[in-house]
Amino acid sequence: MSFDLLIKNGNVVLSDGVVKTSIGISKGKIAALGAPDAEAGQVIDAEGMTVLPGMIDVHVHFDEPGRTEWEGFETGSSMLAAGGCTTFFDMPLNGIPSTVTRPAFEEKVRIGENESHVDFALWGGLVPDHVDDLEGLSRAGAIGFKAFMSPSGNPEFESVDDLSLLAGMRRIASLGGILALHAESAPIVTFLQKEKEAQGLTGYDDYAESRPPVAEAEAVSRALMFGELTGCRLHFVHISTVEAVACIQRAKKKGQDVSLETCAHYLMYSHEDFRRLGVVGKCAPPLRSEDERKGLIDCLIRGDLDMVSSDHSPCEWKDKERDNLFQAWGGISGGQFTLLSVLEIAKARHLPLTRVAEWTAGAPAARFGLNDKGQIRIGADADLAIIRPDAPFRVEREKLFQKNKFSLYEGHEFPSSVAATINRGRVVFRNGKISQAAKGRWIRPSVLHPVR
Hints:
alpha/beta
């Protein structure tokens, strides 16, 4: 046998366990497991290393076109590849124009195909006055649709009111699509923010208190009822509270078609870290209490959280550096460190690597119909992350691949590091460098459901 690439001697994480074996890759696919002495055009010796399925990050913001000074497909995909990610889903809101029409979607596809170093899919947007654009976005190949139940912070991407949300859910259900929701109650967070600002209270505690756990729980509960009424499949993004997790799990047990993600920063950091590290930790929903953080990890271990994403939401430093926390841009720049975060949690809690692979690759692939991704198996895309499990990685500014070099994770030392990232058989990242020749592909949903 002869392969394009042979990875030998690695501890390979399969769906049912970890085995020391080799991976033979031909034409971008996994062609064999075993055959360590086969001929190959390129050989990587992974002795002592862990080989995981490449991460699938279903939630990033790359801001292109229109805000490339924040992030773009080239820098953003480089950052993800440096963190072991081989596929990402770009959100629709921070580009100009937002991805709420078919022409805007097709322009973003063109940019991504020209610039991304790894595979990608694109979300379309659900905003008021654009419900009729959902069908065009679906036919163009949107992986799903995203809506905000509270102000997005971006005037180009309005949040939905209840009538727009119901109408959008009904239309998305007819298209066989899925709706991703930023679930925080607009009345609650708007009321509390105005109350705080009227009193001149604009600090760390004030911002967190303006977006309390009940705001997430109320919005999740309402969205689930709307989803049940309309038959719309739902995916809740960046869930940050145990109460919201429990609410979604109750709906699942009743048979509702719903999934949820949390983000690495909610598992790794708390409100006290926000106060300690400063405005780099501002996000929405906010970082929660230490008890809530630990509770979320327990939810993950119990299997109540489907997947972990980054919600990489960058900006320039001038958009963060504000004395009034309500005016600072709310987003965590950290897409490079999601897989390493989950590995750190797994190591600390003695969890099997198969669960890491499920949270970061298997579950996202299954939920969004990426039939050739998410597992290391013969016939699948050769999307792999090679990890040095005992080689620590300290986050320093010069090691950040994102465009704007600041991050909540700066100064943190992970117990593991990424040695190489392979997308469809091509080495994208190795020895701290990105292969500029690596080009990702745009991924459409595997099954395009007919309009009913």
